Amino acid sequence: MTAQAESLFNSLGAHYEAAFGMDRELQSFIRLVAKTIPPRSRTLDVGCGTGKPVSEILASAGHEVHGIDISEEMVKITKSQVPGEFQVGDMKTYQPSTLFDAVFAIRSLFQMSACDMCSMVMRFSQWIKVGGYVVLGVTPSTSLAPKNTTYDPTWDCTWMLDKLWMGNHVDDLFLSEERWCQLLRESGFIVEIEPVSYLFSPASQEHAPEAHYIVLAKKVEPEPLLGPYPLPRCLKPLEFQDREDFFADRLVSKDLEKLVEDIGDSPDILCIGKDLLNGHFQRRKSRFVDHPIEDLPFAPRTFQTVLALWQMDYVLNMERTIQEITRVVGGPSPKIVIVQGGPYNEVVKLLTSVARSLPVGHQGHILHSTRRYLTKYGFGNITVHRIDASYEFQEASLPERCAAAADFLTGIWHRQHPQREKIKEALVERLKLLFRADAHSVSHGMVAIVARPSLDQGN
């Protein structure tokens, strides 16, 4: 979808500003936000377009304005008429050098997958200081004519496929007002003021009036990667299930490759669990142990690094587990790396929606507990990292891709499920929507906690 969006907005250029630049309700809302945030705030306009009205209003109010847009033509226009720093960039891969006081995403969250859209709000939270703000301007799904839409039950969202917009055919994704507010809460925000909802008529004869919805939210949770929020108070113990092909050759992840490369490959490294790093993640020298984590059969300080990949889901006593892991780590640079699922993991979302049973517990709860006990047992120097990953299905035809993906995904946690064939059938129907337009990836995002001894104590 990125290439399509880039081509689309390069072709529109100034025509987009002519159609959408005179949105009085939006201008009033941005002026209100410009007065709400601290003076000379560092702000980011995501999908800045031609810079009007958002970046222009913020710059006029004395704020430090940065902007990104997928369209080189749009960025060129913005630079010519708004003071600030603007660059060509894809919001899904953008990495800011420092945190912002406020992030604005106005009419820029349409042409992406449901998983990417949900993850995008969480990324915004990562880019914002605690106490900072996000402003979203969207068209809610509740305003759409039912006959023109396709509902996606996995993500509770609505598609308009092959929609004619400004002379182009696009696939646009929409959430309801309630779902947008829920998504903000899940990503660590609270809605600050009553959202604004109104009809806007673009200055173009071929454009019908649109429903616009603008919401201002404040960041209150310091680590969005450990969501979605609010966390459950406790987790129901899960019965252990063997996992097959979890890190098979279909998995593609530069982030995971980098993590494994940084850890290295030596007898001083303990990998807990079966050799899940098979294929192109295979290790030869590191020690693998498939043994209850609560009682590791090693002397204290035997290993310099311990790696646990998706091993914390079935732990019955988290404190005892972390105590054991910290006990066997030592040496000059001890390190513990624990990898679990991230918020809005598409694999988990798909399987949960059709199997109706959780294959894993709430990953944020697991990681919060892990971090708390790591700190208690002397490993409080902790960093949290996003691990982008996906399973790739390159089969030529759509039916082949859907069948291969359904078989593979159900094999991760549901291979022994008595209704596996029915689960596969239901999964195929959802994959047809996901894999349309030659798509072939299922996102499998993860989170890595990297823990070292607390700075005020040795190990």
Automatic annotation (TrEMBL):
GO terms for biological process: methylation. Pathway: Lipid metabolism; Phospholipid metabolism; phosphatidylcholine biosynthesis. Its EC number is 2.1.1.103. Keywords: Methyltransferase, Transferase. One of its GO terms (molecular function) is phosphoethanolamine N-methyltransferase activity. It catalyses: N-methylethanolamine phosphate + S-adenosyl-L-methionine = N,N-dimethylethanolamine phosphate + S-adenosyl-L-homocysteine + H(+); N,N-dimethylethanolamine phosphate + S-adenosyl-L-methionine = phosphocholine + S-adenosyl-L-homocysteine + H(+); phosphoethanolamine + S-adenosyl-L-methionine = N-methylethanolamine phosphate + S-adenosyl-L-homocysteine + H(+). Residues 44-132 form the Methyltransferase domain. PANTHER family: PHOSPHOETHANOLAMINE METHYLTRANSFERASE, PHOSPHOETHANOLAMINE METHYLTRANSFERASE ISOFORM X1. This is phosphoethanolamine N-methyltransferase. It comes from Penicillium subrubescens.
